Model the fold of this input.
Amino acid sequence: MIDSLLRFNRFFERQSLYPILLSSVLALSMYVVRVVYYESAWVIYANLVWNLVLAWVPYLFSLLAAALHTLFPRRGWLLVFPGLIWLAFFPNAPYILTDFLHLTVRADVPIWYDNLLLVSFSWTGIFLAMASLRTMQSLVKAHLGGLVSWFFVAITLGLTGLGIYLGRFERWNSWDLVFHHEKILADIARRFADPLDNLHFFGFTLFFIAFLAVCYLMFISVGRTEEPAAPRTHPIRRKV
Done:
């Protein structure tokens, strides 16, 4: 029993579950305080809670994929379904950053509190995105190799920048990929067909891709940081 609990604990530590839970609790606590003291926040910032729920979806499916790989390391086809769901919902995690568009001065609360509230939700969304992407890259690397795994990261970030734009400005959702994928593809094709008339689309998408790429490189580099080795002690030589 204890060995099983320790294995679960090590698994969750590798997936950064505990700091993500702590960050989510902090964000939700700040939202609750905002609602208790300023009731208008229930309407103004309710979308933050929903977006946080959506941000957890790809992370949970990355956990599922990692668990399946641990249990069945040679059955890579088992990762296809959770991987597709993860990819479809992945843009929802960093999408929370765009909620800063709702930040404005309000008479009922200091601006610094709303700023920290949005930062806490946005940081949690980014953390969820980076942790799940790291997990999925490691799975792709295990089955297809390191080069393919970085190509996978590049494609994912490219689609994410595109998805965030379509979600924020065109109001498409992840489930629209199933029910309205023809309209989404037509919307994208129309913009690529006339790039000079869609500079906002390309600028937003490219800058968001660059931002997420830097965030991911920083995230994985921090994860690889090792504690400095203890200084070597030389044995004391006795004089004869």
